[in-house]
Amino acid sequence: MENENVSKKKHTGLKVAAAALTSAAAIAAYFKITYEIFKKACKRGVTHFDVSEDRNVLNRTNTSWLEGQVHQDRFIVSEDGLKLHGITIPASNDAHEWIMLIHGYDADCTQLLGLAKTYHALGYHVLTIDLRGFGQSEGEYITFGAKESADINAWIDELSELDQGCTVILHGLSLGAASALIASSECINPALKGVIADSSYCSFMEQMKTLTSRLFHIPGTTFIPGLSFWIKKVADFNYEQSDVAKAISIHGVPTLFFHGQNDHFVPLEHVYRLSNALNAPGIVEIVPYKAHGQCMLDGNYMKKCLLFVQKQFIENV
């Protein structure tokens, strides 16, 4: 009888040990998967999530036009010591009105040169920047607006030093739009007069839920705890810092929102949540039949941008 009890205890102990090992293996696998997702989303130099819907926009670069204009590479240093790159393209007039162009995910400062060409032709000075982790800017990790916002505000300060009395409007696409919106909520420089936000997401967390749900066909919340761990441990930011809707609900500036009706990368509901949250005047333009990042291919896109830009600059003379 005693031997039988000992045997049962040993058997139970083995089951507990096996369960513990299985549990430990599962936890290790979970954190390995979430680390790979984190790298794919945030780390420089890896294959990022496919944003194929906006490739038409990426192909609208016009470097030959830029080479024919007076322009200058400029560099500033971020709060955390990164060297950041941008290009100024001054107009041939004495106006002090600047458009800052902020590219989307997995792109660089040349992505929106088509817009730069139009703005410049109408007499606006242009600054187009490389966000941290892209182009000629330093940075190992993309922080989805958490740190990019401070970088953008540093560029606004740079323009104020370069052109005293200047006024600035931010025009961003996707990641650039979200970063611009968070920057506007934190900006204390009176030079900032408005934001054009094209295809912005509400928050990095919401966007990761959408992407991971699509990739793994399971609830998007499954990987959020692991991703939260890695973005804090490795990239030194958290989800709250990249919550666009929360940021602009506290403080905002006049904003023109664009979103494609057929945007599946950032669902349409995001723009409505952002516009409802905005603590400032806002306009929402839904562009029929357009996917993510393709709003600017619409024939009325620049007309609406220019009406907004002119209104903000005139009202702030």
Spatial shape:
globular
Enumerate the spans where pLDDT stays under 50 for 5 or more consecutive residues.
none
What is the count of helical runs?
Answer: 11
Q: What top-tier CATH class fits best?
A: Alpha Beta
Gap from first CA to last CA: 96 Å
- CATH fold descriptor: Rossmann fold
Overall tally of domains: 1
Q: Level of helix content?
A: 40-55%
- Report Rg: 23 Å
Physical arrangement of strands within the biggest beta sheet:
1-2-4-3-5-6-7-8
The name of the CATH superfamily reads Alpha/Beta hydrolase fold, catalytic domain
Give the strand content: 15-25%
Averaged pLDDT, please? 89
Which structural category fits the helices and strands? alpha/beta
Largest beta-sheet characterization? 8 strands, mixed
Query: Helix and strand string, N-terminal first?
Result: HHHEEEHEHEHEHHHEHEH
CATH architecture designation? 3-Layer(aba) Sandwich
In a nutshell, what does this entry contain?
It is built from 11 helices and 8 strands. The chain has 317 residues and is α/β, with parallel strands linked by helices. The longest helix has 41 residues, at 2-42.
